[in-house]
Amino acid sequence: MSHGKQFTLYSCTLGPNGWKIPFLLEALGLPYETVYLNIMQGENKEPAFLGINPNGRIPAIVDHHNNDFILWESCAILLYIVDRYDTEGKFKYSDPNDQYRVLQWLFFQASGQGPYYGQAVHFLMMHPVKVPTALKRYQDEIRRVTGVLETALSKSQWLVGDKFGIADMAMFPWQALATRGVFAEGDFDMAKEAPHVHDWMQRMLEQQPVKKAWSKREEFVKAVSNGPDWQKAHESFAALSKA
Ligand SMILES: N[C@@H](CCC(=O)N[C@@H](CS)C(=O)NCC(=O)O)C(=O)O
Question: How many domains are contained in the chain?
Fold first, then answer.
């Protein structure tokens, strides 16, 4: 460990899953250094990273205060950090049922939100042939999952126990990306179709740790949209983030 900080976080710039982790690390004031892998160039499938996460996906962390303990899968990472380092109980709950509600949302995120939203992006941007029925299936899934969130958030400001927590951190990034580019202009208006989800997303952006981490991602998006040179933007973003 040359950077001297407690955690090394392996992440990437555009993909949503890595951003959950700095939300929590910032909220708990835990020091970390981010290594932004260039997943467009397959850095996440190279032996060096496969030694950290054999699944070849980000995020992964190394906890240098726990014998360089390695952990991957974003929701598992959130649980580990809260369990071990949330000494003031900011993201813990006194009602044991709430602890299970957190698990419910984390499992739902990993199995019922991320994979569907990811497939929508895949069929829209990466699949070698256009398969409109596949794209429609996953767009419909985005609508359905958004409906699940809408029902929950129409009853409470936050997903669990009436306070901002790791369930919100887990569900936010994909939700924030869901309407950007996955639908044709004007096809999915979150404010109209899911007003409580829309308001929750605004509340999320008002949380200092989310604002700080997410604005970094926005910087990168801006750099990429200002010019077509993705590789250059990635390199200058990665350098900027280490400064
Ligand atoms: N369930 C995993 C999903 C991780 C995931 O799909 N990460 C994406 C980036 S957001 C990735 O590494 N994609 C690269 C690839 O699949 O090659 C988690 O939450 O950690």
Answer: 2
